[in-house]
Recover the amino acids of this structure.
């Protein structure tokens, strides 16, 4: 039966699995081995923690600095767009107060500013394509709406004709812009939700992995404190007991120390036996 300190340890090489005989391993490597294992586990643990932290930081950044603000900007742009059309309809129905013209221009400018802020964000390709469609549709509707109210203000167009255009051609273009704004807001909100789910999954996976590695590190640490010292001390005790028995004899030069491996203690035993052979 192979003793505990002489058991084989398997390790992988590019050519397959090889056996490492514990009793032939140098004492310094026996001492260093558990330290290296724990150190490696701690290094892996640190890498996982740093990677998870970077993922969490990146996800939080995109959720709270891109997707959530972007969705709010799209929602407010939709409100401003509606206010601009409301001012347009009021004007073509005969209102002559300058404040309605100012309200129309102000709300159209607000839509432009909010959309431009979204454009500057770091968005995915599909959302950016949607933004391009929105800008094209908005740039088609905006000058026509402003020109219509200006023609009514200057008396270049009658109220009936202006109302027909506002509720006909411009209404279709307006609804196209508003539909694209709604889709944009939903897209940004959905991206935020998906990223939140991914963030939860990352946290769960990282926690599970960290827990497993921590448990393994604890077990290796316990083994280092309980098992490894016994494996190292056992051959020393074998030599000590053998020497103690030899010292009790009557100078029997045929007695030999046991063969206990090829580490420093084993070589000491072999050197002693070789010395005895030379007497």
């Amino acid at each position: 039966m192979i003793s505990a300190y002489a058991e084989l340890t398997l390790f992988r090489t590019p050519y397959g699995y090889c056996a490492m005989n514990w009793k032939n391993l140098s004492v310094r490597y026996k001492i260093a081995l558990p330290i290296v294992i724990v150190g490696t586990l701690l290094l892996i643990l640190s890498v996982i923690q740093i990677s998870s932290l970077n993922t969490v930081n990146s996800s939080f950044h995109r959720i709270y600095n891109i997707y959530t603000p972007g969705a709010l900007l799209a929602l407010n742009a939709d409100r401003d767009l509606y206010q601009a059309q409301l001012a347009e309809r009021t004007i073509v129905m005969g209102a002559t107060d300058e404040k309605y013209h100012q309200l129309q221009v102000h709300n159209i400018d607000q839509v432009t500013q909010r959309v431009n802020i979204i454009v500057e964000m770091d968005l995915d390709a599909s959302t950016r394509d949607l933004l391009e469609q929105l800008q094209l549709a908005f740039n088609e509707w905006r000058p026509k709406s402003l020109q219509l109210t200006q023609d009514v203000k200057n008396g270049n167009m009658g109220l009936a004709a202006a109302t027909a255009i506002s509720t006909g051609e411009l209404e279709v273009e307006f609804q196209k812009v508003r539909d694209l704004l709604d889709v944009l807001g939903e897209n940004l909100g959905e991206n935020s939700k998906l990223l939140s789910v991914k963030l939860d999954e990352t946290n769960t996976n990282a926690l599970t992995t960290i827990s497993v590695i921590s448990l393994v590190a604890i077990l290796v640490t316990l083994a280092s404190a309980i098992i490894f010292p016994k494996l190292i001390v056992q051959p020393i005790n074998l030599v000590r007991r053998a020497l103690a028995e030899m010292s009790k004899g009557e100078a029997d030069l045929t007695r030999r120390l046991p063969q206990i491996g090829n580490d420093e203690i084993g070589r000491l035993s072999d050197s002693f036996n070789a010395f005895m052979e030379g007497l």
Summary: The two ends are 33 Å apart (CA to CA). Residues 169-248 form the longest helix (80 residues).
